[in-house]
Amino acid sequence: MKKIALITLGGTISAKGLHRGDLKDYQSGLLGGNDFLNELPELSEMANIEVVQIDNVSSTQINENHWIKLKKIVEYYLNEQNFDGVVITHGTNTIEETAYFLHLTVDSNKPVVLVGAQRPFTALSTDAHLNLIQAVRVAIDPNSSNKGVLVAINNEINCARDVTKTNTYRLETFRSGETGYLGFIDPDETVRYYRTPIRRHTINSEFSKTPITSLAKIEIVYSYAGASGELINFITQSKKYDGIVIAGTGAGRFSQKEEKSLYEARKNGLHIVRSSRVGNGRVLDIASYRGLKAVSGDNLSPQKARILLLLSLLQSNDVEEIQRIFNEY
Question: Which end of the chain is more exposed for a tag (fewer CB within 10 A), N or C?
Answer without folding.
Answer: N
